[in-house]
Amino acid sequence: MSATVIDPALQHAYKEVLRRNPGESEFHQAVEEVLGSLGPVVKRHPHYLAERVIERLCEPERQIIFRVPWTDDVGQVQINRGFRVEYSSVLGPYKGGLRFHPSVLLGTVKFLGFEQIFKNALTGMPIGGGKGGSDFDPKGRSDAEIMRFCQSFMTELYRHLGEYTDVPAGDIGVGGREIGYLFGQYKRITNRYEAGVLTGKGIAWGGSLARTEATGYGTVYFANQMAGEVDDSLDGKDVVVSGSGNVAIYAIEKVTELGGKVLACSDSSGYVVDEDGIDLDLLKDVKENRRERIKAYADEKGGRARFVEGLVWDVPAKVALPCATQNELDEDAAVAMVKNGTRLVAEGANMPCTPGAVQVFQEAGVLFGPAKAANAGGVATSALEMQQNASRDSWSFEHTDERLHEIMRNIHERCVETAEEYGRPGDYVFGANVAGFTRVADAMLALGVI
Ligand code: GLU
After folding, report:
1. With a 6 A CB cut-off, is 382 part of the ligand 1 pocket?
2. Nearest atom within ligand 1 for CA of residue 119
3. What pLDDT does residue 95 have?
4. Which among 122, 167, 210, 425 is least surrounded, fewest beta carbons within 10 Å?
5. Active site residue 372
6. In the prediction, which pLDDT does 230 show?
């Protein structure tokens, strides 16, 4: 079952994407979902078709693929592949994270880059869209190996970057430690302290307070806004979060702060259930300090929490926040969740729900907040970090968090208003796609045939 029907006027553009990018199924999925919303838009604004805006948007401005050779701790040479897809720069410098994970292929980076264009547009901030990464697997690697890999990666990538050109950040497998090594090598090669060339930096050397928390907090602010559309807030609600990385951890923190209870979270090995609510200090210790599997959480808690080798979506909860990775929640899981009483889903990860799952949620009247709106708080706070770097200033946590909160409120409003304007009230997928697309498309037209 697929949720998406592409308007005949856009079929040719979509078929060309399939033909020219064979085998890149995640990229196809992301394009199909956006084009699926644009039928009514091109009917109302036929000049987007005449100017071939959609064909232009489907083709990245630039795609960089490079070899990343490095030496491991036993002296063995290792070869990985590096990517940077510079997708669209009409709204600002290319902006988007780097993902280090063995599953990363060109199509993965293209899907993430394509999503990033519209997400970044939705924030209302001056940032274009891009994404990068490598099939490097950081799991089990020493700090020294991570450093040598990051140095080799940046030795090739640096020539394509710049605070006005392309500004990477983190994503899966890339956090504060990796951004430090990458920034160190960029600075060394260029002999410039160009703080605005990367975001997610450490607080002592140009980073922004609240950037670490921003994606998870932002997702919960967005979910809370969505909840406000039907009753009041997440207060008193049971919540299930998938993942236990940066996005999941800070989503759990904010849900708990707002009075909700997170019953379960997961990693690729399974999930833990804690009826008392997930103990964040313990989770951070297991995942951030010890870098262990999630089972260690249950082991520490003795009988008061349990580890299960399975899908976290089996745990009934009114609210679900998928914060792990793409296509982690499929149609079968969605059917079970609807039966178990799930009423609100907001995506903290990028494209975690399959098209079939989205359709199940929407048909059952479950409020569904798509990633490009719900997880935009991370990149928005990256843009705030760039602002601070440009003015050589640093803001307080409270000020930055308040700006993030306001940005999420605005994104929510943009989605709701756009969906209503086209007679699709409550359809956040449509609202996010159309509001994001319109901002990029209008800028493209203003800038000429580029
Ligand atoms: N990787 C994050 C995302 O998916 C953040 C990107 C950034 O801060 O540039 O939006």
Report:
1. yes
2. 10
3. 98
4. 425
5. no
6. 62
In angstroms, the CA 380 to CA 290 distance is 29
Range of the domain at 33: 8-57
- Percentage of residues in the chain having pLDDT higher than 70: 98
Could you identify the atom of ligand 1 that is nearest to the CA of residue 112? 4
Average pLDDT score, the chain: 96
Q: Which residue has the tokens 């020219």?
A: 20
8: left (phi over 0), alpha (psi -120 to 50) or beta: alpha
The reply to whether 435 falls in a domain is no
Domain stop point among 193, 224, 257:
193
Cβ(347) – ligand 1 distance below 6 Å? no
Asked whether 92 lines ligand 1 (CB < 6 A), one says no
Q: What is the pLDDT of residue 3?
A: 57
pLDDT of residue 1: 44
Q: Is the CB of 208 under 6 A from ligand 1?
A: no
Return the closest-CA partner of residue 182 out of 165, 163, 169.
169
Query: Which parts of the chain have pLDDT scores under 50?
Result: 1-2
Q: What is the CATH number of the domain that holds 300?
A: 3.40.50.720
Same domain for 14 and 79? no
Residues 126 and 13 reside in one and the same domain: no
**Sign, CA torsion 160/144/203/253:** positive
pTM beyond 0.85: the answer is: yes
Q: Which one of the listed residues 110, 119, 131, 187 is annotated catalytic?
A: 131
Instruction: Give the tens place of pLDDT for each residue, 120-169.
Output: 999 999 999 999 999 999 999 999 999 999 999 999 999 999 999 999 99
Taking the C-alpha atoms of residue 287 and residue 244, their distance in angstroms, rounded to an integer, is 7
How many helices (H) and strands (E) the chain has is answered by 17, 12
Q: In this structure, are 52 and 66 located in the same domain?
A: no
Alpha carbon distance 69, 149 (integer Å): 8
Instruction: Check residue 287 and report its DSSP letter.
Output: I
Identify whether 404 is part of a domain: no
What is the tally of structural domains in the chain?
Answer: 3
Q: What whole-number distance in Å separates Cα of residue 386 and Cα of residue 381?
A: 9
pLDDT value, residue 228: 86
Q: Residue 68 falls within a domain, yes or no?
A: yes
Measuring CA to CA, which residue among 268, 258, 262 is closest to residue 282? 262
Q: What is the pLDDT of residue 235?
A: 87
Strand pairing partners for 329?
353
